[in-house]
C-alpha cells in the first residue's frame, strides 16, 4: 500500500525562496522557485510564500492528505515561537513573527525551523544517515557562513529556544580573527566560503601567492570555488588555504566528537565540494585532538561500514536540495527538544 | 503513600570506593566507605564492591523492593557493555569488563555509567536542575581533571558508545599546553586542580610571584586549594591564575552554549569552590564569544529565575556526594541514547 500523505516544505534563503510538495514514496512532487524579494520587505516575501503554498495545496490536497507544512529559515530563530532574532542574512527581519504570520495567512499550523537544522534532518533521514543506518548525526554546512544541526534519534535537537547546533561558532583560534557573531576565532571565520576568500586576499596582500594574485587580477570578484579550482591545479598557496580549512574543521570536529560521541558527522554546503583538498588535515587534527575519535575510529577502509561504535566523518550525500528536503520532512518528525 | 523502592549506588574512584543504599523519599539510607585497593588489582576491588552491595541488599531488601544497582566509574567506558578503555585513573584496568564482572558475581543486572555523567544526573534530578525547574543541563566537574556530563530531558546523553560529555577536552587554546588526552590546549589543561598547580609553578619559575613562591617554600606539595586561599587574601598572582581558569571556562562554555542551547550549565568539583575568583572572567568570555548566550541572558539578578529561555551558568548545588547520589539515581532513569 502506498501512503497518500504529502507535505509542503519551504526553503527561505536570502536569495532564493523555494516551495515544494513532497511525498515519502516519490520524493519532491513539484518545486516552485522564486527570488526572495528582500527589497520589498518581509510582508511581500511572506505573501509570495503563502501564494506558492496555496498553489501546491490546491494541486495536491485533492488526491493526497496533507501531513503538515515545514519552513526552513535563516536564524537565529526563537522556537517554538518561530520568531526571528537579528538574522544577519535577512536584514530588517529582527523580531518578525514568521510562524504566526504564515499561520494567520494560511489559517493552518506550520512548523518553522532553522535552515541548517532541516538540512541536517534531511541528511539523517534520506541522506548519509540512511546510507549508514544511523539515526543521529551532526551536520556542518560550509557556505557563506558555517551552519550546523544536531539530530538525535531522528529528531532535531533545538535546545531550549531553537538556537542549538551553532557549530559555526565553536572556538578554533581563541585570539583569532573577528567573527560576524561578535566573538573571535570561530569555526565560521576559518571554514566558510567567506573565510577562504579572506585568506586568499591576505596571502595576496603579503605578496606571497602569484597564482592567487593572478586569479584576483583576472577576476577581482573571485570566489571560494575559484580558489578551490586553482588548488586542484596544484597551486601551493591555494592548497595551503584548504589545508587550513581542514585544520579548523578538524579542531572543531574534535570538540564535537569529544562532546557528543555521535556515530556520524556530515560536512555539507558548497565548500564541501573541496573535500579532497581539506580532508587530510581535517583527519590529522581530529586524530590528534580527540581521544574519543581515536577510540572509535575503525579505519578509513570501513567508512561505509555502519558497524556500531564507528565514528564516521564524511561529506554530505545530498546537494543544495538538503534544506528544501528537510523542510518537507519536518512535518513527518516532531521536535525532540522543548526543554 | 510512601514508595518502598530503593536502589544501591556505587561511586568507584581511584582513591575511595563508596557504596550506598538510597530511597527517593529519604535520600541516602546508608553509606559504606572503603579505600579502593588498586594495588591489589581490579578483582580485589570488584570483590570489595560486591561484598558491600550484598551487605546493603541483605539489610534493605526485606522491607523494600530493589529498583536496581548503579555504578559510577572513571572512564573512558564503553557502554552499554560497561567495559573500561585505558582509564587514566585506574591503571591496569584497560579492557576490564566491569559490568559483566559485577553482574556475574551478584547474579543480577547492574547499570554502569561514567562518574561525571552520574554526577550530572544527580545535579539535574536533586540539585540545581530541580531548584531551577529544568530537566536538561551540562555539568562541568573541575577536579584533578575536568569531567562532564550532558543530561537531556532527565536522562544521560551517552552518545553511541558511552563516551559523550567529555567537556574537559573542548578546544580552548589550540596551540596550548599538552593535555593528558594526547591533544593540546584542552579545557582540562586550564581549568583543573592540576592546571592551577602547574600555572602556579610556571609563575614561580618566572620569579614573578612572591606570594606563590612563599607558599611553595612553606609547602612544596601545595594544592589548588592553597592557591585559592592565597587568592582570597588578595595575592595578585594567585588571583590572576583563577582569572585564567575563568577565562578558559568561559571560552569552553561559549562553545557549549552555542552548540547545545541548554537552560543550565553547572560548574562543580572541588575547584568550583573558587567560583567567586573565576566567575567574572568566565562571564566576560562567555558574553563575548556566545551570541546564543547574549540572546538568552536574562541578567544575573534573575539567576534563580527559571523563566523559559534563560541560560543559567551557576555553581553546583551538590557537593562531593553528587557522584554517589547519581549512581543511586541511575536505576530510576534509563539511558536516553543508545544510538
Describe how the helices and strands are arranged.
The structure is a homodimer of 339-residue chains.
Chain A: E1 5-12, E2 16-23, E3 27-35, H1 42-60, E4 65-73, E5 77-78, E6 83-84, H2 98-106, E7 111-114, H3 115-126, H4 128-132, E8 137-142, E9 146-152, E10 155-156, H5 188-191, H6 193-205, H7 210-218, H8 224-232, H9 236-260, E11 264-268, H10 275-289, H11 291-295, E12 312-315, H12 322-329
Parallel strand pairs in A: 1-4, 4-7, 8-11, 11-12
Antiparallel strand pairs in A: 1-2, 2-3, 5-6, 8-9, 9-10
Helix pairs in contact in A: 1-2, 3-12, 6-7, 6-9, 8-9, 9-10
Please provide a written account of the structure:
- Two copies of one chain form a homodimer.
- The first copy, chain A, is an alpha/beta fold.
- Helix content of chain A is 39%, strand content 19%.
- Chain A has a five-stranded mixed sheet, sandwiched between helices. A five-stranded mixed sheet of chain A has the order 10-9-8-11-12, sandwiched between helices. Chain A has a two-stranded antiparallel sheet with strand order 5-6.
- In chain A, strand 1 (5-12) and strand 2 (16-23) form a beta hairpin.
- Chain A is globular, with a radius of gyration of 20 Å.
- The first copy, chain A, starts with a strand and ends in a 10-residue tail after the last helix.
- Chains A and B meet through strand 9, helix 9 and helix 11 of A and strand 9, helix 9 and helix 11 of B.
Amino acid at each position: 500500500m502506498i501512503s497518500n500523505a504529502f507535505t509542503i516544505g519551504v526553503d527561505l534563503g536570502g536569495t532564493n525562496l523555494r516551495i515544494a510538495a513532497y511525498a515519502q514514496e516519490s520524493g519532491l512532487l513539484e518545486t516552485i522557485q522564486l527570488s526572495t524579494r528582500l527589497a520589498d520587505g518581509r510582508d511581500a516575501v511572506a505573501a509570495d510564500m503563502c501564494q506558492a503554498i496555496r498553489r501546491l495545496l490546491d494541486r495536491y490536497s485533492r488526491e493526497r492528505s496533507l501531513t503538515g507544512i515545514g519552513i526552513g529559515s535563516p536564524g537565529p530563530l526563537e522556537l517554538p515561537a518561530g520568531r526571528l532574532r537579528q538574522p544577519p542574512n535577512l536584514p530588517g527581519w529582527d523580531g518578525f513573527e514568521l510562524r504566526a504570520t504564515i499561520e494567520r495567512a494560511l489559517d493552518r499550523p506550520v512548523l518553522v525551523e532553522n535552515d541548517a537544522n532541516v538540512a541536517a534532518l534531511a541528511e539523517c533521514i534520506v541522506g548519509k544517515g540512511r546510507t549508514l543506518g544511523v539515526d543521529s548525526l551532526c551536520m556542518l554546512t560550509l557556505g557563506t557562513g558555517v551552519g550546523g544541526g544536531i539530530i538525535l534519534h531522528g529528531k532535531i535537537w533545538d535546545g531550549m529556544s531553537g538556537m542549538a547546533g551553532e557549530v559555526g561558532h565553536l572556538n578554533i583560534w581563541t585570539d583569532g580573527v573577528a567573527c560576524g557573531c561578535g566573538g573571535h576565532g570561530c569555526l565560521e571565520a576559518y571554514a566558510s566560503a567567506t573565510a577562504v576568500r579572506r585568506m586568499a586576499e591576505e596571502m595576496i596582500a603579503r605578496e606571497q601567492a602569484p597564482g592567487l594574485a593572478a586569479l584576483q587580477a583576472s577576476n577581482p570578484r573571485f570566489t571560494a570555488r575559484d580558489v578551490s579550482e586553482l588548488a586542484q591545479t596544484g597551486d601551493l598557496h591555494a592548497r595551503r588555504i584548504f589545508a587550513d580549512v581542514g585544520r579548523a574543521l578538524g579542531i572543531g570536529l574534535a570538540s564535537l566528537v569529544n562532546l557528543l560521541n555521535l556515530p556520524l558527522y556530515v560536512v555539507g554546503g558548497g565548500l564541501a565540494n573541496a573535500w579532497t583538498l581539506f580532508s587530510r588535515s581535517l583527519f590529522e587534527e581530529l586524530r590528534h585532538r580527540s581521544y574519543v575519535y581515536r577510540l572509535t575510529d575503525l579505519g578509513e577502509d570501513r567508512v561505509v561500514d555502519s558497524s556500531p561504535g564507528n565514528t564516521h566523518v564524511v561529506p554530505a550525500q545530498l546537494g543544495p536540495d538538503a534544506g528544501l528536503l528537510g523542510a518537507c520532512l519536518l512535518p513527518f518528525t516532531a521536535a525532540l527538544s522543548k526543554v
